Every structure is written in structure tokens, then in C-alpha cells.
Amino acid sequence: MRLACRGEKEQFAELVRRHQRIVFRIVQGILANLADTEEVLQESFLKAYTHLGEFRGQSQFRTWLIRIAINEAKMRLRKYRPGQHDSINETDREGEEIAPRDLRDWDPNPEERLRETELASLLERAIRALPRGYREVFLLRDVEQMSTEEAAETLEISVSAAKTRLRRARLMMREYLTPHFQKRWHQKLLDRVAGRRRTS
Amino acid sequence: MIRCEDVLREISNYLDQDVPAELRQQIEEHLRACDNCTVLVSTTRKTLSLVAGSKVFEISPAISERLLERLAGQWG
User: Fold this and answer.
1) What gap in Å lies between CA A76 and CA A81, rounded to an integer?
2) Distance of alpha carbon A41 from its chain centroid, rounded?
3) B41, B15 Cβ separation under 8 angstroms
4) How confident is the model at residue A190 (pLDDT cuts 50, 70, 90)?
5) Quick count: other Cβ atoms within 10 Å of Cβ B74?
6) Which one of A63, A105, A119, B35 is at 20 to 30 Å from A174 when CA atoms are compared?
7) Looking at the partner chain, which of A12, A13, A120 has a beta carbon nearest the beta carbon of B56?
8) What is the pTM of this model?
9) Cα–Cα distance measured from residue A46 to residue B7, given in angstroms and rounded to the nearest whole number
10) Interface test with A, best of B10, B47, B66 (most A CBs within 10 A)
């Protein structure tokens, strides 16, 4: 992707409009603070504009841009919030197997249990509770719906490492959400009646 | 015959439809007989569906506007 000199700013503004949502979501998923996120968002686009000449088109513009934003967010954590950076550092449970503990079944339609904003807020808390290395791949793959290959390329990790982190992130998310969506007593009763009908 | 540990190891690939046909068949056979794995797979699938359809970490119009203003200010 190359921008012609004439109208370059207008073309870049169009790229900003197209990609600002994804960059914001990724950065906000990494940083807990909204003011930090806004600053990193602005710095990332400014940096992308300044270094546009270095973009060779070997990867997608989106991949390149998100990589810049993730690096900016990590730098900010290291610089201004070292405690936070250490406590959620990377994937410290890499070698440990995730064992599902809560195997209660969910309501058939969990999205009906909460209002849209409540659901978004619950999911945001669950995503923030993931170790950072898992959170990054989960945000790219399952929130942004990138392919696993693009997520791995963006994070500069192997596809196999991306799959391992993704599996753990998904299992941890499920575990976090289960108490909120477990079947209520009347649903269990309905299931029991339906089961009896099937066997009689 | 595959075990619960095998389902746990392959759950993510299974949900992404990224397992060979033979393994998929073996997993499905196991699921028909194992309540715990059935719950594990169905609740993980619901987790992904909730996340995909949600509006997490949405950018506000004010932040979007300030971003374009800052860039315009930089360009002069």
C-alpha cells in the first residue's frame, strides 16, 4: 500500500477512520487506564504516519499498525506502570495445564441474562483478568476475529504458540464467565422434564 | 478411543474446525458419552459467541474526534 504525495493526508485520515476502532480496542485491552489508552492511540497513529515510508507492504497495513500500537502500549506499561507490567507479565503459566474446575452447564441463551452494556462490561473484566500474553492473542483472534495466522504474525510469535495461548485464554474466559451464566433452577427443572419425556 | 484430556487439549482447534476429520469424529463420539466434556465444549463455544457479538472496549466519538484533531494539528 502506497500513499501518493498529493492528498496523502486525506488518504491517511481515511486509514485512521478505518482502523481507529481496532487499535483502540487492542490498546484498551492491554492498558487498564482510558487516558493512557487515548494517548497511546494518538502516538501510534502519529508514529505510523511518520514511519509510513518504512512500510514495505510485506504484511497488511493493519498488522503493521497494530504491532506499532502494541509496542507503544507495552512501553507505556514499562515506563509508567512497572508494577502492573510485572504482575500480569506475559504468560507465566505457559508450562502449566489449565484444568477446568467449574463444569456447571450454562443457560441456553446467556446473552439474554444481561443488558448489552452489562455484558460488555463483564466481558471486559474477564479479558482483563487474562495474563497479558494470552489477552493479546485472544483480543486479536476472538474479539477482532482475525485468523490465527494473522494474529500470530501481528504478535510476532509462531502459529503454534498462538494456538496454545488462545486455547488457554478461551478456557480461562469460560471459567470466569461460568458463575454468571450457570443454569438457573427452572431451566434445570425443564431439562429434567424433557429428559424424562425422552426416556419414557 | 480418546479421553477427556485429549478433548481438553484439542478443544480450541475443534471449535475452530481445525482438526483432521478422523479426530473430529473421535471427539464427537466421546462427547456423546461424556457429560463433562459436552458441557466444556458447549460453554466454551458460547463464550466465543458472546465475545464475537459483543461491544467490548468501544471507542467513543469524543476520543475518535480528538485523535483526528491531534493528527490535523501535527500536519499543520
Assistant:
1) 7
2) 16
3) yes
4) confident
5) 13
6) A63
7) A120
8) 0.87
9) 46
10) B47
Contact yes or no for A123 and B12 at CB 8 A: no
The CATH number linked to A141 is: 1.10.10.10
Q: What are phi and psi of A11, to 5 degrees?
A: -65, -40
ipTM (interface pTM): 0.94
Q: Would you kindly state where each structural domain of chain B is located, as residue ranges?
A: 4-75
Q: In b/e form, how buried is each residue of A151-190, taking b as 16+ CB within 10 angstroms?
A: bbbbbebeeeebbbbbbbbbbbbbbbbbeebbbeeeeeee
pLDDT tens digits for A95-140? 667 889 999 999 888 988 899 999 999 999 999 999 989 999 999 9
What is the distance, to the nearest Å, from the Cα of residue A55 to the centroid of all Cα atoms in its chain? 25
Average pLDDT over residues A37-50: 95
Domain-terminating residue out of A87, A119, A148: A87
- Grid coordinates of B44: 466454551
Q: Which three cell numbers stand for residue A10?
A: 486525506
Residue window 15-74, chain B: list those with CB within 8 Å of chain A.
15-16, 18, 36, 39-40, 42-44, 46-48, 50-59, 63-64, 66-68, 70-72, 74
| DSSP secondary structure letter of residue A157 | -
- Domain coverage including residue A81: 8-87
Residues A136, A155: Cα–Cα separation, whole Å: 8
**How many angstroms from the chain centroid is the CA of residue A123?**
10
